Amino acid sequence: MKKRALVCGAGIGGLSAGLALARIGWDVTVFERDEELRTAGAGLNLWPNGVRVLKELGLGPHYAAISASLRTYRTFSSTGEVVAIDDVSDWPERYGAALSGVYRRDLSRMLADALGAGRLQLGRRVVAVAQDGDTVSCRFADGGSAEGDLLIGADGIHSAVRAALFGPQALSADGLVRWRGLFDLADVEVDPHAAVEVWGAGGHFGYMAIGGGRAYWFAAADGITTEPDDARAFFSRWERSSVPAIIAATDPSTIIRNEIRDLVTPLPRWSRGRITLLGDAAHPMLPGMAQGASQALEDVRILKAALAEHEDLAAALDAYERARIPWVGNVVRGSRPLFDFDGQHERVASNCNPILGRYDSIAERRSA
Ligand SMILES: Cc1cc2nc3c(=O)[nH]c(=O)nc-3n(C[C@H](O)[C@H](O)[C@H](O)COP(=O)(O)OP(=O)(O)OC[C@H]3O[C@@H](n4cnc5c(N)ncnc54)[C@H](O)[C@@H]3O)c2cc1C
C-alpha cells in the first residue's frame, strides 16, 4: 500500500513538497487554509539552487516559459555611480540554471497544476496535529480530519505545526519592512535581462523582470515602515538612478508592505516522530539574499532524497535534518547583514556587490 503524506500549507514549499513526494510514489494531499492559492506577493527572485529543484521535478521547460532569465547583475549607488556589472550569463553552465525572476502567482499556479487538483484541498485550515507510533493526523477548522504516515508542516512563518511540535517561538522584532511593487517593462527604460540593485545611504532598492513583460521592485529603508507614500517619496529622491522612473511607472495598488522577520533562536530540530517542517515554517529568513523560496525548494530536494533512500521514517527525517539545518543556518545568518544599509553602502563604495559576493559561499552547493 502507498505511504500517505499530509502537507499543511500550499505555498511554494508545500506545493513542491507534495509534487516531489508524489513523484516517488507517495499518496499526497496538500491542505491550504485559504480558499484560493496565494495571489499576493509580487515577484520572486529564484536562484539556480532553487531552479535546479524545479528542473529535477520535470518542470524546467514550464518554468522557462513563465519566468525571466537574467544575464547581468548590475549594482549602482543611489547617486548614479556604476558599482559593478557582473556577467551571470554563464550561470546555466556554471550553476545548472540561470538567475531568474518570476511572478509568484505564476509559480504557484505552475506547481499546483503539476501537483494536480485531486491532491490539493483549499479552505482547509489545520488547527491541530497528533500522532502515535503508526499514524499521524491533523484536524481542520471545518471539523474534518485526515490521517497519514507523515505530516509536513509547510505552513509558513507563523506555522501552527511548528508551534504544536516545539511550542511558541519568538520572531525577531527589529521592525524591518520590505516594500514591493510591479511595473511594466514597456513603461521604463531598463535592461530587461538584468537584475539591478541600487544602494544608498539608509536604503536599498532592487528590480528585475519576472516574465510576461512585467517586472517587480523590492525596497527597504531605515524608518520607512508604515506608509507606502513615504516609501514612494523616499525612493523618488534617488534622482540620479532609474529608481524614480520605476516608482512613477508603478501602479500604487500593486505596492505591498511586509514585515520581515526570522527566528530569534533557530530551531535545533525540525522533526518529532512522524511530523517535520519545511520552508519558512522551519527557517524563516530575512529576504536579504532572496533565498527563502530557493531554500524551501532545497528542503524539498533533500527530504525527497531521504525518503527515497530510507525505508525507516525516523532515519529519513534524521538525514533530512542533518543535511539541511546547518546549511540553511548559514543562509539565515548571511541574510541579516544586508539590512544594515549604511554598512552595505560602504561596501558598495568599494565596488563590491554585497549579494553576489555571498552567493557562492553561502547559498550555492552543487554537490548536495
Ligand atoms: C518581502 C519578502 C520578499 C521575499 N523575496 C524573496 C525572493 O525574492 N526570493 C525568494 O526565494 N524568497 C523570497 N522571500 C521568501 C519567500 O517568499 C518564502 O521564503 C517562501 O515563499 C517560503 O515558502 P513556504 O511555502 O515555506 O511558506 P509560505 O509561502 O508562507 O506558504 C505557507 C502556506 O501555508 C498556508 N497556511 C498557513 N497556516 C496554515 C494552516 N494552519 N493550515 C493550512 N495552511 C496554512 C498559507 O496560507 C500559505 O499558503 C521573500 C519574503 C518576503 C517576506
UniProtKB/TrEMBL annotation:
The keyword Mitochondrion does not apply. Residues 293-323 form a coiled coil. Keywords: Coiled coil, Monooxygenase, Oxidoreductase. Residues 5-333 form the FAD-binding domain. The keyword Cell membrane does not apply. Transmembrane segments: none annotated. One of its GO terms (molecular function) is monooxygenase activity. This is FAD-dependent monooxygenase.
